[in-house]
Design the sequence.
């Protein structure tokens, strides 16, 4: 890979900012390249102990600066708990029990979870709380979710457009669709009523670029793209998307810096290692749909309007053979599908970015060199890293070959279920629990 | 640091404010051993304790409105407070123009927050067309500081669709693109305008002039992905026209023959061929001139050669170009 910044007349803000980031990143890569072998492997090591220390500290106590995240505490739980689970570690029983108790205090008496005790229930924090409890696992955590009331909450958030509102009279966007559908699916309470018209809403957010926007008309963006794609898979309507345009947009989000950017001509950011990388993990299991779009005679797979009209009767080509199949099974069937496609992004390059540019040696991960670590980026950089490591694996559970893991093999993280972004083993436990209760 | 000291000095605890003496504050129910506990500052704790008291009592009063102001200043991300504030504003029939000023104050601190923009949309919806010019000015101001501000763009699009004000929007896009041709948000807005503005007549009516504009932008900066994507988007409804429009193939040809920054030109050529475009010998020559392919690929079809060149010159996407190559026989 080229390591020198381009020499060109720098004119615009976009170009200047891009060159500044490239120069910082390439400085790191060049410095790395000049190191002796043993120093290199040291630098590529995932600093597990330091990450654990950073995560444990935050779970125990956060400083006054976190007042700005006072309405996001289930998110803080999820970012930390999921990171710890990815590292193959866990907090001790007492701390886990405290976490269950705390999340229960965020649960609204009428269903759903708010950003803290006594706060209005909100779809994003409900997603974070449920994923936290799934990650904690065990009878006590899983049974603490009031599913009947959560279902009612989801129903109340449902909009006539097919989308969801984040909270009572809140904003409607693709994030809301994903968090609602993901929560319903993992808790085994997804039904036709909740899923109705969600697909139409998501389709209206796929832009001319190929990625998804938060709302119809807005710009294609990595976070919304993951949310849009995952939602369509969970409701078994992914064949209605223009997948070839989506892939074409996605592959161009990885740049010379080796990491992903969130939007065209924006700067690289470690968190998109998951939002974009995760979308690639999903695509690996969609090759039959992609192929179908590629070979469509006359349209060549790029004509969306015809296809959307013709495939409004979904189900016959779905992940499940029977169109009347239980909506809750699509997340499970998906992970059981054989991944027929090789990863279409550069997994080694992305791992290099995460380990050398996003990782802080003292613990925690970040957006890019020059930025400070935080729990959000720690969670999504590590989530991106596991996606990379398993990106060639045939079976989601089996350990990947050493050649797929950048740096020492001890960097290997736990595999995830990419539709929900929870550790796979935890997902199976929750699936078992919620389908049998 | 000085300013926060000052704030602390000016801030009078609720317990010392006579107008609050009838209210019993409610502490946060964090439990005995909370996880992710935040070391709140004293004023944060007290403000939120009083907020909880009024929120639970559903007191929609002027003092409650004032309290939400204080709570929002302490944490603009607290959607519960914003939500309650809207209930109060409704109940009091408050002056919503003043409310716009309040959101502007919050935006000056940190404008990347869903709640602020949702609130702003709520106000503008109530004010109707009275708010149009103010909202367009407000977003313009935010975009002058950060031309890719996602929330600001979404809000602006909502204003245009709900309240109108399309008259100068294409000109505004021109302006922003003139400043920074790589600003993809401005390209996206341009697409929004030409496809949705009731004045311009839609994509079909705008296509010819937009293709001209975009081709010029591509020739000036062939490495600019935004303009290439926009060009493709101009034919979103009509692949046949895209494949057969000589302006599309000729801009590819032009960039290829310059032998510089040609990845998007090659990628477009590949897509065109996959959709049935029949390349002339001129294209074959231009691609061959980009580098000698491996001996076993000499004489292979042009699409295969294009993929091979892309694998070499665009190594970060090597897996993708290989995959595209492997799918060629299905698509062509």
Sequence:
């Amino acid at each position: 890979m080229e390591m020198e910044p381009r020499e060109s007349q720098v004119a615009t803000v976009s170009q200047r900012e891009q060159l500044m980031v490239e120069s910082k990143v390439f400085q790191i890569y060049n410095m790395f390249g000049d190191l002796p072998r043993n120093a290199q492997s040291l630098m590529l090591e995932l600093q597990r102990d330091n990450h654990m220390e950073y995560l444990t500290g935050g779970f125990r106590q956060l400083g006054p600066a976190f007042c700005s995240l006072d309405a996001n505490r289930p998110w803080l739980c999820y970012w930390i708990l999921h990171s710890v689970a990815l590292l193959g570690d866990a907090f001790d029983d007492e701390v886990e029990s405290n976490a269950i108790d705390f999340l229960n205090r965020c649960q609204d008496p009428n269903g759903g979870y708010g950003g803290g005790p006594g706060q209005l229930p909100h779809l994003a924090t409900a997603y974070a709380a449920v994923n936290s409890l799934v990650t904690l696992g065990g009878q006590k955590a899983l049974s603490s979710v009031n599913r009947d009331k959560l279902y009612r909450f989801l129903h109340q958030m449902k909009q006539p457009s097919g989308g969801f509102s984040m909270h009572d009279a809140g904003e409607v966007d693709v994030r809301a669709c994903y968090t609602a559908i993901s929560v319903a699916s993992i808790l085994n309470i997804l039904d036709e009523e909740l899923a109705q018209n969600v697909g139409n809403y998501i389709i209206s957010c796929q832009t001319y670029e190929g990625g998804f926007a938060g709302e119809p008309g807005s710009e294609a963006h990595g976070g919304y793209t993951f949310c849009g794609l995952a939602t369509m898979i969970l409701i078994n309507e992914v064949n209605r998307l223009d997948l070839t345009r989506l892939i074409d947009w996605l592959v161009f989000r990885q740049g010379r810096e080796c990491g992903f950017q969130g939007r065209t001509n924006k700067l690289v950011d470690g968190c998109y290692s998951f939002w974009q990388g995760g979308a690639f993990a999903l695509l690996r299991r969609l090759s039959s749909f992609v192929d179908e779009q590629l070979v469509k005679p006359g349209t060549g797979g790029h004509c969306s309007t015809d296809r959307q009209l013709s495939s409004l009767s979904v189900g016959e080509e779905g992940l499940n053979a029977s169109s009347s199949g239980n909506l809750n099974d699509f997340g499970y069937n998906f992970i059981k599908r054989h991944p027929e496609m090789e990863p279409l992004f550069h997994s080694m390059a992305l791992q290099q970015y995460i380990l050398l540019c996003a990782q802080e040696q003292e613990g925690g991960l970040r957006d890019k060199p020059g930025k400070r670590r935080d729990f959000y980026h720690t969670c999504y950089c590590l989530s991106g890293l596991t996606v990379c490591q398993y990106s060639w694996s045939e079976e989601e559970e089996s350990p990947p070959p050493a050649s797929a893991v950048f740096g020492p093999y001890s960097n290997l993280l736990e595999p995830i279920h990419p539709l929900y972004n929870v550790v796979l083993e935890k997902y199976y436990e929750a699936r078992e629990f919620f389908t049998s209760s | 640091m000085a300013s926060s000291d000052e704030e602390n000095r000016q801030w009078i605890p609720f317990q010392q404010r006579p107008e609050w003496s009838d209210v019993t504050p409610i502490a946060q129910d964090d439990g005995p051993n909370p996880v992710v506990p935040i070391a709140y500052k004293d004023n944060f704790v007290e403000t939120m304790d009083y907020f909880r008291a009024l929120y639970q009592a559903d007191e929609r009063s002027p003092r409650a409105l004032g309290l939400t102001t204080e709570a929002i200043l302490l944490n603009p991300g607290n959607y519960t407070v914003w939500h309650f504030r809207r209930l109060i504003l409704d109940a009091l029939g408050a002056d919503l123009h003043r409310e716009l000023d309040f959101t502007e104050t919050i935006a000056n601190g940190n404008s990347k927050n869903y709640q602020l923009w949702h609130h702003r949309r709520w106000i503008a919806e109530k004010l109707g067309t009275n708010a149009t010019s103010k909202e367009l000015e407000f977003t313009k101001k935010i975009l002058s500081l950060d031309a890719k501000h996602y929330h600001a763009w979404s809000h602006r699009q909502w204003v245009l669709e709900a309240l109108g004000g399309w008259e100068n929007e294409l000109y505004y896009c021109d302006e922003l693109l003139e400043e920074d041709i790589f600003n993809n948000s401005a390209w996206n807005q341009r697409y929004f305008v030409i496809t949705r503005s009731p004045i311009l007549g839609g994509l079909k009516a705008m296509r010819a002039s937009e293709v001209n504009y975009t081709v010029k932008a591509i020739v000036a900066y062939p490495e600019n992905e935004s303009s290439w994507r926009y060009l493709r988007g101009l034919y979103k409804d009509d692949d046949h026209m895209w494949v057969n429009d000589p302006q599309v193939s000729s801009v590819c040809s032009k960039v290829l023959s310059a032998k510089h920054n040609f990845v998007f030109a090659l990628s477009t050529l590949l897509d065109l061929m996959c959709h049935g475009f029949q390349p002339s010998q001129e294209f074959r020559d231009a691609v061959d001139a980009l580098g000698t392919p491996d001996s076993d690929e000499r004489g292979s079809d042009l699409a295969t050669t294009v993929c091979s060149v892309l694998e070499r010159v665009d190594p970060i996407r090597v897996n993708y170009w290989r995959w595209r190559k492997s799918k060629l026989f299905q698509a062509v």
